[in-house]
Amino acid sequence: MKKAFQKLIAFFINSPAKRTVQAIGVESERVDEAYIDLKNKIHLDNFVKVPKNKRIVLLPQCLRRRKCKAKKTDLGFVCASCSPKSCQVYKIIKKAKELGYLGTFVLPGGSMVPKVFKKTKPKAVIGVACPKELGLGIPVAEKAGLAVQVVKLKKDGCVDTEVELVDVFEKLEL
User: Fold this and answer.
1) Both ends of the chain: CA-CA distance in Å?
2) Backbone angles phi and psi of 107, in degrees to 5
């Protein structure tokens, strides 16, 4: 019963009803954050059951530094390890490898997500992005039958963004 209620609330938050909530003065960001938090709770039990070697991590290209030397491939950017001390992308990739993750992908856009899912066949995914992109990406992962956990950027804006590494590492270790 609890899961059914959570799903109903998640649908309400990420549906046309969202505009109604915004019309009464609730900020769009608050609605997005509530949706993200709820989806993390809904998927948590299934996510932790998936072995780490069946999980992937999706990172946004905006997390890369301006002078990043990563090479673009058909599955996103491949880290060149050019700034290991200061680069959040490098640190996340390194931690995911240490934990045995199937892969970490730095994507130039959400349209590449289904391609990554098709090629890697994960059972679970951790996504890092701005709340708006997470709101769009969660249903894509759900449609693919994946358990999902997400972490929102602490500083967004499409260039030189930042994420709280502690939050990402906590999700990786689940």
Assistant:
1) 25
2) -105, 140
